[in-house]
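Duplicate of earlier report; Sugar isomerase input re-posted below.
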Amino acid sequence: MRIDQQEIRELNNPGTDTHKRCLEGLKTVYSESLIERVVNRLSDFQVALPSWALGAGGTRFGRFSYGGEPGSLEQKIEDIGVIHQLTKTAGAVSLHIPWDIPKDVQAVKELADSLGITFDAMNSNTFQDQEGAAESYRYGSLSSVHQAAREQAVEHNIEVIRIGEQLGSGSLTVWLADGANFPGQYNFQTVLKHAEDSLKKIYRELPEDWKLLIEYKPYEPNFYSTVIQDWGTSFMLANACGEKAFTLVDLGHHLPNTNIEQIVATLMSQGKLGGFHFNDSKYGDDDLTVGSVKPYNLFLIFNELVYGMENNPQNPSLAWMIDASHNIKDPLEDLIQSLEAILIAYAQALLVDREALLEAQQGSDVVRCQEILQDAYRTDVRPLLREARLRSGGAMYPLQAYRELKIRKRLIEERGMRVRATGL
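Output:
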């Protein structure tokens, strides 16, 4: 489905005067030039939505459907198109293969193009056995002690690259579930060497202008060890592969209380931060709505990202993606909330007075450093987000618009109640 642009304009009109007053209020605190700079940066900022995030998620204890789920890749792209129409920030899709192999590549490209959507990083899947596969990944894939399983996993990743080439993607994300549940299950050095050798084989198949993004995770689904368990291992493997390989940071893939903002700063200083998977967590890799639990931490991470983007030209443009699970909420509403949280943290970080912060740091004025950061964090930047959307033709209040337009009801009428998204 598509939203008539006139419907969005009609929803925006009643709130325009209030919005203008809020925006003028910000101009009494920050210069008009800074306001314009932030609004322009927000207008340009695009976050990829993964194809698997449009359906109801779940846990090993259960999955609760809600109706109107997308039953095909085309319907998933259409759902992203709806979110993009409302937010003007979701201008890319990240596909998971083999969950979403296009049946007609040209038709899928034309559909995405008509909705203003590009194809972001491709994601391979060697954490599940696929129907008809000769080898099992029960005991590992790219790092398996079984050569045939490693070769099969490498070939799958190369296949994903080829599909991505046809769609116009420019990067491959590799996440390994490989690991052990018990001490002595494998030799740490052996499996790490296998993983490195496999990644190098995949790397050699990358098109010239592509990037390899190597993800990491300390535990789950294996609970004693994971082959690529932290950012240091990912960084080491990326260096071993070459200049087109980078570390990918998922906000949920860290042990409790890890200083993620320091990891971000370190990787950007080395030119090796490739991208982000946004989510939030309370206990582990909870995949909760972005900013729903630790919004200040998200701001601190963006503070380092903004500094890095302005001061580390050796680091490439970053790939941004939301990676969350929706077991209770309507996933489209959840994604809209996540986009809002990301943009709020980004806007707040753009308001940090860098010169004043540097002066306070050089003078070891710790109290002043904290005040400068928290002044920006406590600023209500939502008028800036609304202004960016208004200028781009989006909805000033996208979640409200989604509900007033009864999008979920319309999707249920179109697709029915008893449908299930592919890959979930």
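The first strand starts at residue 48 and ends at 50.

Merging into the original ticket.
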